[in-house]
Structures are given as structure tokens and as C-alpha cells.
Design goal:
By secondary structure, this protein is mainly alpha-helical. Among the domains are: 279-405, Phosphoenolpyruvate/pyruvate domain (de novo design (two linked rop proteins)), CATH 1.20.1440; 413-586 and 601-613, no CATH class. Helices cover 64% and strands 5% of the residues. A 9-stranded parallel β-sheet has the order 3-2-1-9-8-7-6-5-4. β5, α21 (504-516) and β6 form a beta-alpha-beta unit. The longest helix has 36 residues, at 78-113. The two termini are 22 Å apart. The active site is at 154, 583. It catalyses: oxaloacetate + phosphate = phosphoenolpyruvate + hydrogencarbonate. Residues 163-190 form a coiled coil.
């Protein structure tokens, strides 16, 4: 497919992007020097020749260069191919760093000029002010709000921790280089850059063994010291400043699935949950220890020169610090005591020790609130004795961090499939001689039986019985959750998510499991009984989304359930799955069914909130790719149906998107700011009128047509499964050590059993990106062509254009689809077709994919009026134009190496080297596309 053309204002763009071009050239030159030094001139010359041919073919459309490039790549030895793949993969990584730096640079430039960027707090507060909203109203909204990005580990995370650490250092050096004035300083920084690029070249990109859950935990936690623990307090400080002193409740909190998500992952257990919580607690506490130590060094004030509060003097007196050098320094003595208590807390909660001790650890804090109270004593004393400026830089951000992160750092969700819960319930009932075959009961009988069990204060477990391994493991998870809440606080674990929720009994089963583990005390009709964990349904498939409202209505109709929920915090999280619904019905239908389900749920909960105060919080299971709900978060939140946000939103952050969003601290804060800004706008600036019925009717019609076209290809075309397994690197992805979770739920090749994540990842790798658009072009073309007259066809098109202008849902959906088409490349995808054994069937299927790509592109042009892809996003268009020449060799070599690997044309060490080359190419393509997970 053609590369996006240069935008009309290209000259102005070129001028402001000169620093970006300079950074890319600098990093490219350094990488080239390192390759020449490490691999020799011949290797460097080969890579440079490939680069020039690829640029000639891609940017200059030189057919001769394309043919020469093809011949050259096919004739490389395995060793040469791997060297080339490494070079272009690392270039993609370095280009990402340069682009990230440029985003920060441009944002700083606009901030200096007073420009307000869409998606920023400044822009949102301007809009709120224009609508007459006062600071007190905004603060009151935030008091009730809950915004939570949830980090998850899935089989698309291709980054190693060592690589991430080296890249963070390169990013820091690029920022330092921007600030450096002296040529000598810039030269010194370039020397350090050369060292870090050398480190990267000599560090393997891939893991030698399968990634463990412990590795995933460590990877996720690496973003906290640099980004979340430091940047989230800054975000709160900005909010407080904009709200003119109105206090801001800690509404923005982090969430995790890692260690608690056992859906289809046999490697997650009670032990991994305990490990995750211990590591999270250690991360938070070590950060606090460092900050308290630094604070003690800063607060050197002497009582010979300044007074302190009696409370601070008492805190200092309890520190057991008898060093005479600090006798007149009460702040230091107080903080030494705080440090000692924190060190004792670290040892009690995690079993690890602090690095330094002025006095021995003693008397651990019982809770984060106790620690926060001691910090407040220090703050109040400073404020009362002319020391308030000393609190601004470190103490106040530390206090906010403790408010937000506590001793638990992030809320860990439990997740398991409903059928696995059912197995446990069946065994418990059978052993208790209540029901010999629970699974055979119909739904009404299951609900009736579970209701009786929940109204009985007794547990089902027989203490003397040896339950099966599965039941013991599942119950152990809930028991570990109970213990974790006692150790780290109630915020450590708040949710039990049920994958494949299809019935009311799926929800009741989790209440029974909570009762068995002591997370639900007594019978549910006991006025004192509460559920510790919110039972969260996950509606994933098209059918599940359509049944969501009926299931929730039936759940609240069960006697005792609604009162129990109201006593337990009056919060109901409902998770919506973007991935499986997409794999089930295609991109447009998935989004439409999500929209319909959200609208129906909002209507169900409106009277429940009005009459009982029950809050609905939607949890969006979004992935990196557009087909899995990816795309800009700001637009996605604003595109939610009216009445579905209300200050409440959780959303997953997955795969390499986590690194893209949060590895750079400044970009991380901007992404978090975007979530807050969008939530405020969606809550406080709702649309003035309802979505016209005509819009909804057309969307429903397009959805059915789109789903029919999608399913006709994916589920009804003979040979499609063989095509998918042949023309994408799905088999090689399954072998790659990039996640602790298997790629498929079952040992089959059925598309239905394949996880949606590797499904989307595979299509992105081969550049066809089918899950992000297929079916929409056919739907639009069919609906327009079925118009009874030319006039009616024109009317229908005008309606589509109006829907795009006025309806954020459709505008965001088409914008994301536009990005998918721009990032896909069917000329490259055609190369993968050669890998399918049934060439005749493969050509037919690829022709259908290509035809639908063209129909979708035409539909976008008709509806939006834009003849070029990414006409409204010139920065992304520029990025793609510069990246594609460096991605092309990776894709071409991936095809060639997959051909050799599948044919077993090499054996032994050479075969393993071919496999390594494929996996390196997967890493490089993922880095180049950035949101392929």
C-alpha cells in the first residue's frame, strides 16, 4: 500500500522537526559506528547497502532498488541475516527514543509559549471554565472519582528489562544533550551515548527461557521508581494548583493483573500472588525509605535558630537517636525515627532489609496512615515555623505518594475463567453431599442452590477431606487475598474478575468462594456481612455483551445480593472485553456491541445509583492494537456513550504499549494526565443532546453487514485457518519467550480457541492488520449500493458524513481505522502469502483481504473527505514515512527466515540461529509499529 504522502505544510513541519532528524541521525551514526567496530566493515557495508536500497524502494518508488533488495536479502547467509535483523531492530528502538524525546521537546516548547494542547489538564480546565464550572465542583467530582490504569502482562511484551534500562539511560542522555550549551559537554554526552549503544549491541534482545511470572512482576515494577511514584504526585500537585487550594482526593491509582491473573495461565498461583504483593510492597517502601533519608539530609534546621512544634519535638524524642551531633536537629532525629519504623515495616511485610540504619529498625507501622500521620507532623511544624518552602520539593510529593500507593503500591486483581470456578463449586457441593452433579444442573437450579448456600452461615468445606489439586489451588488464591488485605491494607486486592461471564451463577459462585475463604463473613442476609472483593463480570464475546444487562439485572434480583453490595462500598465494576469481541465479530461490530452494552448498563444503573447510591465503574480491557481497543486514550474515553463514565474508569495497559507510554517519565505523566483530563470532560461536559436515533439505526445496520463479511472470511472460508497459520508468524510467536501465558487456551488450531492477543499480534507482524478494519468497507459499500435510487444513495452518504462530524463514537472509530490502514502494508503482507502451502487458496484469501482494504480506504475517503491516510495526524504520518524503510528489511527477512525454518533447510546450531533471527525480527517489527500488542 502507498506510504502516506507529505502533508501540505511539510516545509513548516520540516523546520520544527529538525531536532528530531538530528537525534535520529546521531543515534543512527553511533549505531553504525558500533556495528563497524563490533562486526567489521563488511557487515556495516552490507547493512548500509540494504538501508539505501530500502529507502530507494520505499520513498523513491525505485522498482530496480526493490528487485535488488529482494535478491540481496534472499541470498544472505543465516549469520548475515541475523546481523541485519539486529541492526534494523535496534534502529527501531533508537528511533522510538528520539521520537519520545521530540514529543517532550515540542510539549515544552508549546508550554513556554502558553499554547494549550488538547488532552492536557490546561485545555480541559479551560473548557470547564468556559462552561461555568467552579473549582469546588471539579474538586467534588474528583472526590467521588476513580481512575485506574491497570498494567497487565501478556504474550506481546517483547522487551527485556536489561534493554529497557539501557534505553532509559539513552533517553536521559538525549534530554541532557538538549540542555547542554558547551560543546565539550555535548561531546561528553555523545561518548556516553556511544557506551550505551555499545551496551545494547552486546546485550541480547531475547530471553533464553520462557518468561516467568516473577520476571513479569519485575518488569512492571521497574516503571514505578522512575515514573509512577514520582510523576503521579506531580500530577496531583498540578490539579491542586488549578483548583486554587481545594483538596484533591487520591482518585488516580494504579492497578495490576500480574501475579493474580490466572485465566489460562497455569503458572499463576497463590505463591505468585504473594510474591507480587511482597515485591510491590518492597518497591513502595524502598522508595519511601530513600525519600525519608534524603529529606533528613535536607531538613538540617537547628532549634538554636528556629522553633518546632511540640508534636515534632515529641516525634523526635521517640526516635531513639542519641547522637549528640544531632541533639539540636529535631527534624533529622524525627526522620531517623520514621526511617527506623519504615525499615521495620519493610522487614515485616516483605522479609527484606533496608540498606542503611542510623538506629536499629523497631516498631513497624501498622498502616500507611500511621506513616502519613508522622509525615504530616513534619509538614505542620514546617508550616508553623517559616519552613513551608522546604516541604514543597520532597515532603509534599512523598505524602501524596503515600496517600496513593500506601504499602501495597497497586491494586492486584484476581482473574479466573468461570468454568474453573464451577469446577471448585462442584467438588465442594459433592463432598458436602449437597449436590452430586452441580455442572449438570440448569441455570435456574444453579442459582437456587447457590442462593441457599449463600444464606447459610456455614462453609461448605469438610476439614478432613483431601480436595483435588485444582480446588485446593483456587481456594488458596482467595485465602492469599484475605491474608494480603490484612497485611497490606484493603486496597491491595479489591476485585475478583470472572472471564467468560455468561450467567448469573458465574457471579454467585465467586461469592461462595469468598465465603469459603473468609472474605465474606457469614450469610449474605446477615446485616453485618460484607464482601471483601467486588465480583466483576467480564463480558467478552458478542453474545456475552448482548446478555450483559440481563445478567446484571438477574444478579441483583437474587435475594440478599444488592444489600450485600451496598454494605460493601456500593461499587460495581463491570469489565468489557475488546479483544475477544473483535475476534468474534470484527472491528466495527465489536465496538458497536460494546457501545450498545455500555448504554444498556448505564440505563440499568441510573435508578440504582439514584435510589441506592450504587456506582457503576466500567473496566475497559483494551490492548495495544486498534483491533483490541487500542488507540489514543483521550479520544477513546470521550467517545464512550453518555452517562457511562461519571468519574469512574479502569482500563488495561498491555504489552509493549506499557513501555511506549511509561518508560519515559515525562511522557508517562502526559499519558496519565490525558486519562484524568478525558475523565473530567466526559463527566462534566456531557453532550447537549442524545445521539439521534438515525445514527444508532445506521450503526446497527453497518454492524450486521460488517460482521457478516468478517465471519464469512474468518470462520466460513475453507482453508482460512491454514492461511492464518501459514501467512503469519503465529507459530513462531508461540515459541518466543515473551510471556508466561500460552498463546492458545486449548491445544488446537481453531481460531475460536486462540487467544485474541497473539491473534492481533500476528496480523500486525505480517502488516495485514486484518482485525483493525475487515468488514467495514464491505458494510459501507453494501449499504450505499442497496439504496433504491441514486438520490437515496446520496442521502445515505450525507448521513454517514454527518455521523462522522457529530458523533464522537464514529469519529474515533474511523480515526483509529485510518491509523490501521496507514500502518498496514499489503505489498509486504503479500510476501507472507508465499509461505502458505496451498498457494491457490492463499491467493484467493489474500485477494479478499486486499479488496476489503481498498473498500475500507474508499469508505473512509467518502465519509471523512480525506483522500490521504492520516491527513489529520501529520506527526504520525511523518513517523510512518520515516520508519517504513527500516521496517521493510525486517519483514522481508522474517519471511525468508520463516521459509527456511519451516522447511528445516538448516539443522542443529544453524536451525537455532534461524529461529533466533525470526524472534529478533518479531521484536524489531513490534518496536517499529509501537502498538502491535
Amino acid at each position: 500500500m502507498p506510504t502516506p504522502r507529505r502533508p501540505k505544510n511539510a516545509a513548516a513541519d520540516d523546520a520544527k522537526n529538525l531536532p528530531l532528524v538530528a537525534d535520529i541521525r546521531l543515534l543512527g551514526r553511533i549505531l553504525g559506528d558500533v556495528i563497524r567496530e563490533q562486526e567489521g566493515s563488511a557487515a556495516f557495508d552490507l547493512i548500509e547497502r540494504i538501508r539505501k536500497l530500502s529507502v530507494g524502494w520505499r520513498l523513491k518508488r525505485d522498482a530496480g532498488a526493490g528487485r535488488e533488495l529482494d535478491r540481496l536479502l534472499k541470498n544472505l547467509s543465516v549469520a548475515q541475516a541475523v546481523s541485519v535483523v539486529r541492526a534494523f531492530s535496534y534502529f527501531s528502538h533508537l528511533a522510538n527514543l528520539a521520537e519520545d524525546r521530540h514529543h517532550v521537546r515540542r510539549r515544552e516548547h508549546h508550554d513556554r509559549l502558553g499554547h494549550v494542547a488538547e488532552g492536557s489538564l490546561a485545555a480541559s480546565f479551560d473548557k470547564l471554565a468556559r462552561r461555568g464550572l467552579r473549582a469546588s465542583e471539579i474538586a467534588q467530582t474528583l472526590q467521588r472519582a476513580h481512575v485506574s490504569p491497570v498494567l497487565t502482562a501478556h504474550p506481546t511484551e517483547v522487551q527485556r528489562q536489561s534493554v529497557l534500562d539501557a534505553e532509559r539511560r539513552i533517553a536521559q542522555l538525549l534530554a541532557a544533550r538538549d540542555r547542554a550549551d558547551a560543546e565539550r559537554e555535548r561531546a561528553a554526552i555523545e561518548t556516553q551515548l556511544r557506551a550505551r549503544v555499545t551496551q545494547l549491541w552486546q546485550t541480547r534482545l531475547l530471553r533464553p527461557t520462557k518468561l516467568s511470572v516473577a520476571n513479569e512482576i519485575e518488569n512492571a515494577l521497574s516503571y514505578y521508581p522512575t515514573t509512577f511514584l514520582r510523576e503521579i504526585p506531580k500530577l496531583y500537585a498540578e490539579l491542586e494548583e488549578r483548583l486554587h487550594g481545594h483538596p484533591v482526593a487520591p482518585f488516580l491509582r494504579m492497578g495490576h493483573w500480574i501475579g493474580g491473573d490466572r485465566d489460562g495461565n497455569p503458572n499463576v498461583s497463590a505463591a505468585t500472588l504473594e510474591l507480587a504483593l511482597a515485591k510491590q510492597g518492597e518497591t513502595a517502601l524502598r522508595f519511601y525509605l530513600t525519600e525519608v533519608h534524603e529529606l533528613g539530609a535536607e531538613l538540617s534546621m537547628s532549634t538554636l535558630l528556629v522553633e518546632v512544634s511540640p508534636a515534632l519535638q515529641a516525634l523526635a524524642g521517640r526516635s531513639h537517636d542519641d547522637n549528640p551531633q544531632r541533639g539540636d536537629e529535631p527534624y533529622r532525629r524525627a526522620l531517623i525515627g520514621v526511617y527506623a519504623r519504615l525499615a521495620a515495616t519493610l522487614e515485616r511485610l516483605t522479609g527484606t532489609e533496608a540498606l542503611r540504619h542510623a538506629v536499629a529498625p523497631s516498631s513497624p507501622y501498622a498502616s500507611a496512615a500511621e506513616f502519613l500521620a508522622d509525615l504530616a507532623t513534619v509538614r505542620d511544624s514546617l508550616a508553623g515555623h517559616h519552613g513551608e518552602p522546604l516541604a514543597q520539593a520532597r515532603l509534599l510529593p512523598l505524602m501524596r505518594a503515600v496517600q496513593v500507593f500506601g504499602f501495597h503500591l497497586a491494586t492486584v486483581d484476581l482473574r479466573q475463567s468461570s468454568d474453573q470456578h464451577e469446577l471448585v463449586i462442584a467438588e465442594l457441593l459433592k463432598v458436602a453431599r449437597i449436590e452430586p452433579d452441580y455442572a449438570a444442573l440448569d441455570e435456574a437450579a444453579k442459582v437456587a442452590l447457590l442462593t441457599r448456600v449463600l444464606h447459610d452461615a456455614r462453609v461448605l468445606r469438610v476439614p478432613t477431606h483431601a480436595y483435588g489439586e485444582h480446588s485446593r489451588g483456587e481456594l488458596a488464591i482467595f485465602e492469599a487475598a484475605r491474608n494480603a488485605r490484612q497485611r497490606f491494607g484493603a486496597a491491595a486486592i479489591r476485585h475478583a474478575i470472572i472471564s467468560h461471564t455468561e450467567t448469573v451463577s458465574d457471579l454467585l459462585e465467586v461469592l461462595v468462594l469468598q465465603k469459603e475463604a473468609g472474605l465474606l463473613g457469614g450469610a449474605i442476609d446477615d446485616p453485618a456481612a460484607t464482601q471483601a472483593l467486588v465480583v466483576v463480570p467480564l463480558f467478552e464475546t458478542i453474545a456475552d455483551l448482548r446478555h450483559a444487562t440481563g445478567i446484571m439485572r438477574g444478579y441483583y434480583a437474587v435475594p440478599g445480593v444488592l444489600p450485600l453490595l451496598l454494605r460493601s462500598g456500593a461499587e460495581q465494576d463491570i469489565m468489557l472485553g475488546y479483544s475477544d469481541s473483535n475476534k468474534d465479530g470484527g472491528y466495527f461490530t465489536s465496538n458497536w456491541e460494546l457501545y450498545r452494552a455500555e448504554t444498556a448498563l448505564a440505563e440499568l444503573f441510573e435508578p440504582l445509583q439514584r435510589e441506592h447510591g450504587l456506582v457503576m465503574r466500567l473496566f475497559h480491557g483494551r490492548g495495544g492494537t486498534v483491533g483490541r481497543g487500542g488507540g489514543p486514550s483521550f479520544e477513546a474515553i470521550l467517545a464512550q456513550p453518555p452517562g457511562t463514565v461519571n468519574g469512574q474508569i479502569r482500563l488495561t495497559e498491555q504489552g509493549e504499549v506499557i513501555a511506549s507510554k511509561y518508560a519515559n517519565p515525562e511522557i508517562g505523566r502526559r499519558n496519565l494526565e490525558t486519562l484524568v483530563a478525558a475523565t473530567l470532560e466526559a463527566t462534566l461536559l456531557p453532550p447537549g443532546r442524545k445521539v439521534p436515533r438515525a445514527f444508532l439505526e445506521v450503526a446497527a445496520e453497518l454492524s450486521q453487514r460488517s460482521m457478516d463479511a468478517y465471519r464469512a472470511l474468518v470462520y466460513e472460508t475453507p482453508g482460512f485457518t491454514d492461511y492464518f497459520f501459514g501467512a503469519t508468524p503465529i507459530r513462531e510467536i508461540a515459541e518466543l519467550n515473551i510471556g508466561s501465558r500460552p498463546a492458545s487456551r486449548k491445544a488446537t488450531r481453531a481460531i475460536e480457541d486462540l487467544r485474541a492477543i497473539p491473534w492481533g499480534f500476528s496480523w500486525g507482524q505480517c502488516r495485514a492488520a486484518l482485525p483493525g478494519y475487515f468488514g467495514f468497507g464491505a458494510a459501507v459499500a453494501g449499504w450505499l449500493d442497496d439504496a433504491p435510487s441514486a438520490a437515496e444513495k446520496k442521502t445515505r452518504l450525507a448521513l454517514l458524513q454527518r455521523m462522522h462530524r457529530e458523533w464522537p463514537f464514529l469519529r474515533t472509530l474511523l480515526s483509529n481505522m485510518d491509523m490501521v490502514l496507514a500502518k498496514s502494508d499489503l505489498a509486504v503482507a503479500a510476501r507472507y502469502v508465499e509461505l502458505v502451502s496451498d498457494r491457490r487458496a492463499a491467493k484467493k484469501i489474500f485477494a479478499a483481504i486486499e479488496a476489503e482494504w481498498q473498500r475500507t480506504a474508499q469508505a473512509l475517503t467518502l465519509i471523512t473527505g480525506d483522500k490521504e491516510r492520516l491527513a489529520g495526524n501529520p506527526s504520525l504520518a511523518r513517523s510512518i514515512a520515516h520508519r517504513f524503510p527500516y521496517l521493510d528489511p525486517l519483514n522481508h527477512l522474517q519471511v525468508e527466515l520463516m521459509r527456511r525454518y519451516r522447511a528445516h533447510s538448516e539443522t542443529g546450531a544453524e536451525h537455532e540461529r534461524v529461529q533466533r533471527g525470526i524472534h529478533l525480527s518479531i521484536n524489531g517489527v513490534a518496536a517499529g509499529l509501537r502498538n502491535s500488542g
